[in-house]
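Q: Hi! First time doing this. I have a protein sequence and I read that you can turn it into a structure. Is that right? Here it is:
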Amino acid sequence: MLVLSRQRDETIMIGDDIEITIVDIRGDKVRLGITAPNTVPVHRKEVYEAIQRENREAAKVRMEDFGALPRPGVPPRTPGEPMRPGRSAANLVSRPSQAPADNGSAPQGAAPINPSTEPKNQSGPAPEAGPAK
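A: Yes, that's right. Below is the predicted 3D structure, encoded as structure tokens:
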């Protein structure tokens, strides 16, 4: 462990991207300002440990556990009821849908663009109106 002494408003650099600045010192508390890229997570240690603990718990989930989750349009399964066709745990894994082919048409629900009705981009000043008749 590297131990450094710093005073208020002094900075420590970690690599080229991370700055730690001593913002304030009050009694036995030091306030730090940390500047780091968005790609570098910065957490208090107790928060970091809680995230790690939750990740370990989430990694223990089995595919069978998904069978008890409700699915849209399918009535929930009651305890002890056998799995119905189409309700196996393997079918509950989401699969990416196939995107429609781009055939140049407007998106579903959108009106197609008609070039004759589109406003024209006029450059220069608007024409002046002549005297009223």
